[in-house]
Predict the 3D structure of the following.
Amino acid sequence: MNDLNFQWAYLGPETVFFSAVLLLFLAAIIQNKAAALSRALVRGVPVLAALGSASLAAASVTCPQTSLFFEAYQVDGLSQFFKLLVSAGYLVACLNAWSPSTLADYRRADYFLFLTLSAWGLIILASAAELVTVYLALELASYSLYILIPIRSHSKEAAEAGLKYILFGAVATALALYGLSWIIAAQHTTYIKELASCDFTMANPLAVLGLSLFLGGLFFKLALFPFHFWCPDVYQGAGNETAAYAATLPKMGAVIVLIRLAALISPGQTLANILAVLAAVSITYGNLAALAQKDLKRMLGFSSVAHAGYILVGLVSKTPEGLAAAAFYAMAYLVMNLLVFWIISRISDDGRNLTYDSLNGLAKRSPALALALAAGAFSLVGLPPTVGFIGKLWLLTSAWGHGYDWLVIVVCVNSAIAIFYYLSLVRHAYTEEPAEGSLEEAAMARANTSAFSQLGALALGLLVILLGVLPSPVFGVILEASRQLLPL
């Protein structure tokens, strides 16, 4: 085992976010005595932290593998790529939550403090290369969400969502911790690098069961069937801006850990086949359940169950191309969902939950928001030339010919099913009009169509298209990082 090897040069994003946490903690303390300074810190610190962290992560995305803290912490291309994703997603989430109508002014500093603390946990999780470190970083990111989910003024649904998230999270945490103890008992190590050479076949059932339980904790964060029960209720109950964060960023942390743990699972093994079946069931169940929803956030909740299955498709083949495809699709999922939630937050001026009918007349009220929504919906379906299309194409290519051809067919069939509910977003925005004198008409008239709102939506929509038209530079970097992680 190497020495401590503590090097600040490799800890740029972590240091930036930790500094932001301290400054926002100061803002929360002084908000009653120095309100103007507190507001300035709350407005400026998250944006500066996100930009600084993203710049440092992008600059080091091609760095060589470096192990820190007795090899428990690994800095490589894949970790830096996910730190870049977390930083960029955090920036959009903060801009989206600058002035939420459901958040009382006295809670604003606390809100951004815990939002930043959660993102810091995800940044640490991206480099965690040892299971105890993974567990601690996962809990750091989760505890903040336990506080953020219920913060929605005068909402019983938010309190219910927070309670469900805490209870289900406690069960998932217990499963992961119990599984970790069995892994230690069976393999006598918690380092992922060393576990990669250990036996995880049915000849060692204790190790298989321990890894399965530990993966269950990650599947909870990813909202993979059957660990998804919290997801639609939490999305529906949480504020729109909070749901935008909870639906996207925590999944990035789960994906990077799953990519690292994919080295422990070989194609054709019992555990790999179980994961493939879970992916197929999650995709099918998520899409079918989403068909029956009218509440947009609840629909996106079941949709995320399906997308969790899509990401898992890239992991079962255990190839660099499969791992890179999973990472790329995680990025696509982040951009697509942030775009849709951005538009939901702009239309919902009072923080209410939207239905499909709430989108009626959007094209006339704000052509820019409607166009961006169409780009997001097409990408979620997987239509060219969007990032959702190219992401699914690489996922299917990675699974085909590696014993999971049947899983490719399942994905194709479910992509057709998803057309019905995703394109309903576009249909309502472009072809439906709100009934005269209805609540939907009054609400659409109050929709936030400021220049900031429209520019943000168009920027995210343009990113969805650009990553679909020019994906090779990004995918090439991820593929090279995956080869470092899993050389063949």
